Amino acid sequence: MPTVKPPCTECQKERRQFLRDGNKKSPGCAELWRLAFAQDMDAWNCIKIIFEPWITRLCDASIYSSSKISGLSRQDVPDIAQDVWHNLWRYAVRNPTDALGLLAEDDISRVIGLIKTTVKHRVVELCRKPHGYEDVLPDDDPLTGVDRESVKSQPPKVDPPEVEGVLDILAFLQRHIKTAQEKIIAEVIFLQEMKPLDVFDLHPGKFANVEEVNQVRQTLIRRLRNDPASRKFDSSASLQFKLENDEVPMQEKPNLFDPCPYDEGVLLDYINGHVTVAIRAAIERSPACVQAAADLKAELAMWQPALRQMFCPTSEKLVAYQEKNLPANQQLVVAAHIRQCPVCLEELQMLDAIDAVPSEPQPSLPRRLYKLIFQPATLAPVPVRGEGSYRTIERTPQIELLIRTTRTTGKQGNWMLFGRVRYEGDQPMTQVESIVMQDVEEEDAPEFSTTVDEQGAFTVKGLDAGLYRIRILTAAEEIILREFRVGETY
Fold first, then answer.
1. 98, 254, 256, 375: which has the fewest Cβ within 10 Å?
2. What is the pLDDT of residue 116?
3. How far, in Å, CA of 197 to CA of 206, rounded?
4. How far apart are CA 278 and CA 490, in angstroms?
């Protein structure tokens, strides 16, 4: 590939240089992406070699943080990464002018943003995919001239298209969920898994009391379940549920022929975890109740994708909200929904995890510890939020530790340390299990242990003047920081 080889080689050098100094100027990579957006397949192949490890890490981070809601595992990462490459290629075909406009200067930051957005769209789509459904993206073969013109005329859209089964269930639900009260029940209880009391608290003007909430809920559940049309969805859903009842001991031998004494409302509260211990035990002692709850849970899960289409922001709008690209009024509307919707909140956390992935792989733990121990500290003050000024005590390509100390009294143990830990890019480091401070001059001195808040900040009180070492404990590793002295204000 004579045309592609020079920018390909230069791009590889620039990515290594970026790891060392964070220089965003990448003329080689920019030229390589221009060639790829112009449908040069050799350029695409080179780009995949250079950027695929990073895209794989983006997909892996999203699945790691969303395994509870997505039903995906790390075995799906290669397929998701391939989908992302496919959608990037189709974006370039559909929007060649816009794609090249991302590279007006020799800075690929906007292309990096496009890649992250594409990953976000794809993973959110898969999170909302019905169980048992498999979508097949079109082949990655280059389009013919006729096909290319056809694709260009279509509005930009991230694959795949809407799922037919979801639309069928959506029409079924819309036919039965008629009144404003029923829409509130469907959103707050069926989708967000709240209690009837929560419905009354959130919408006091819509219901006279909690009893009315229960009555509307019961009526709606029975109407949905008694419609013969609901049975046609059973085989397509492919849902099998087993309720976990091992934690509750069987106090007495159940009668296998006794019917379940609880109605659908109580069983729904049981599924959502809102019943008393006594009712939970009674349900789990009854095989009929356990089976009835499992059947109801399967139906609710089958309705979930359609309920999300009715009440949740679309995947495109959720990604735009997370990237702060919505108009201000829409940002507020989506924010209000997310505060009440646990599934959207988990998806938002998943999108944040994608943004937290560094552009280059982190060094191995031994190499990282070497940098932490031997790299000189930066002593210049660093402005951060909060009163007083902090001093950078450690800085590596991955994290930065900033501290300040204050003398509190004239007695022993009169020093207080305030610290912040953050990632590259000023993002707070919050995934910390414990921060431990140890006096290295006094062998018998007790250790001081604390943790960080949502801003990556921590406080340690009652320190004596002396030489200390800080250890940051995370779920994945222990980071040992270079020693520093407490006994002068920073």
1. 256
2. 92
3. 13
4. 57
Beta strand 415-423 with 381-382 is unpaired
d(CA 275, CA 403): 47
pTM above 0.70, yes or no: no
Beta strands (DSSP E) in 223-382 are 381-382
Residue type, 24: K
Residue with tokens 């006794």: 258
Q: First and final CA of the chain: distance in angstroms?
A: 56
For residue 190, the 8-state DSSP code is I
pLDDT in tens, 421-472: 877 556 788 878 888 888 877 767 778 888 888 888 888 888 888 888 888 8
* Helix, strand, coil share of the chain (percent; to 5): 55, 10, 35
Residue 302 CA to residue 237 CA, distance in Å, equals: 6
Task: Locate 317 and state its tokens.
Answer: 């709008």
For residue 347, how many other CB atoms are within 10 A of its CB? 29
d(CA 488, CA 392): 14
User: Could you report the per-residue pLDDT of 297-337, keeping only the tens digit for each?
Assistant: 988 888 888 888 889 999 899 999 999 898 888 888 899 88
Return the structure tokens found at 300: 């609710």
- 352 burial (CB, 10 Å; 0-12 / 13-18 / 19+) is middle
Cα–Cα distance for residue pair 20/1, rounded to 1 Å: 29
Element (H, E) at 393: strand 390-395
pLDDT in tens, 206-251: 999 999 999 999 999 999 988 887 776 654 333 344 444 443 444 4
Give me 88's structure tokens: 């990037």
CA 202 to chain CA centroid, Å, is 26
In terms of Cβ atoms closer than 10 Å to its own Cβ (0-12, 13-18, 19+), residue 356 is: middle
Instruction: Please tell me the distance from the alpha carbon of residue 453 to that of residue 385, in angstroms, as a whole number.
Output: 14
The amino acid occupying position 218 is: Q
The dihedral over CA atoms of 87, 92, 95, 100, expressed in degrees to the nearest 10, equals: 140
Q: Which residues are paired to 405 by β-bridges? A: 417
Selection from 302, 167, 280, 166 nearest residue 225 by Cα: 302
Q: Are the C-beta atoms of residues 431 and 474 closer than 8 Å to each other?
A: yes
Range 470-483 average pLDDT: 73
In angstroms, what CA-CA distances link 488 with 20, 404, 419, 458, 468? 33, 9, 15, 19, 13
